[in-house]
């Protein structure tokens, strides 16, 4: 059997984390089995669907690398096909027109709930003659006996009695098809073999299977993945923080880190935490997805992102980092080579934003010294050390790590003091107190002119402190 999966978002907003994980699971399953991954835009909600949302979904998928083999297909382009199927169901006596008023349906619902019954349509118009010229909907004639049984790849065998299902609407009064009709037709026409989707759709599945059977076709294989929860146990939403995939890009996360985190939300392969893309494809199987909901842990995502920042090629991190430095008003071309800064600083950050923030002192002077560090290290006794280091650094013809290292040692020897008495105040002077790697590397990256300027700033600080 040819494996064909699909991702079918509704363009009523951005690509959210839950949708991205569903898309990832479907994408991985198709890639693992050499199948096809189809993108379908379910835009029949004309009031809420927007082109902006479509673009946001496509942008999010592109950023994550979830390339699709076919599509995007738009449901609004397929209304003629849905109408054809609806008419065939009417002709075959498997659907009927219903003219029940809104008032009648509301009264029916109230009575059923008062009697502690499950609200459902009572089939009032099943045997009525309703004119096509009067306002009406079209309902699917659901079987009244028997049961629907399907094997879900995540939840196992699922059985639903047909008497629990009512005659759902498949065409609205305005002529538009409903979700349960259009999705069935689409999955059939697009030859979808495996429907991988959120478990909020599991109640729709027996209804859709009955429609497929009425059309004379077998159902695809279903896999309903559990929802993602916030750390408070509620369904993940905006109040838990960013839920849009693109937001995570803006927050300084790498797409492969987000993919790695999402694939581990509800699935595991032993104790392994980090996966290459090839490993995800070869190891992932939707049958191994947990039945229980998963909890989104922002700190765990940051930890995974930090591992990718450290292991990725510095050239790629530098390219991504330049955007975040630009957001801080920094032009990376005005300072040290960005790749060298990445190598020096990447152990100190979990996101690209953090990396930009802890690296900005290489590119522009700080406004103020860290108050606590300056009070402790930039004391009058440090002035002689800083002047000696400044003089030797300014005379260096070869501005490189080894000569800078030798200068620091020479100052310590000449003043007959320990290295710490030289290195610590000098580090505060040139960095302002920012976290940094080895001092010789830090000074090398900051550059001769900037170091001279900052040491002068430190000496001025010491003078002002002595006068006060």
SSE blueprint and pairings:
Blueprint: E1 4-7, H1 17-32, E2 36-41, H2 51-64, E3 70-74, H3 79-91, E4 95-98, H4 102-114, E5 137-140, E6 147-152, E7 156-161, E8 169-171, H5 179-189, E9 194-198, H6 205-214, E10 221-225, E11 228-229, H7 245-250, H8 255-263, H9 277-283, E12 294-295, H10 298-311, H11 314-327, H12 338-345, H13 352-359, H14 371-377, H15 382-394, H16 401-415, H17 419-431, H18 439-446, H19 448-467
Parallel strand pairs: 1-2, 2-3, 9-10, 11-12
Antiparallel strand pairs: 4-5, 5-8, 6-7
Number of helices: 19
Mean pLDDT over the full residue set: 95
In which order are the strands of the major sheet placed? Answer: 1-2-3
Report helical residue fraction.
Answer: 40-55%
Number of E strands: 12
For the sheet with most strands, the description reads: 3 strands, parallel
- Strand proportion: 5-15%
Query: Over all CA atoms, what is the radius of gyration?
Result: 32 Å
| Form type | elongated
Describe the structure concisely:
With 468 residues, the protein is mainly α.
How would you describe this protein?
The chain starts with a strand and ends with a helix. The strands form five sheets. It has a three-stranded parallel sheet, covered by helices on one side. Strands 4-5-8 form a three-stranded antiparallel sheet. The protein has a two-stranded antiparallel sheet with strand order 6-7. β1, α1 and β2 form a beta-alpha-beta unit. By secondary structure, the protein is mainly α. The relative contact order is 0.09. α17 packs parallel to α18. 47% of the residues lie in helices and 11% in strands. The protein is built from 19 helices and twelve strands.
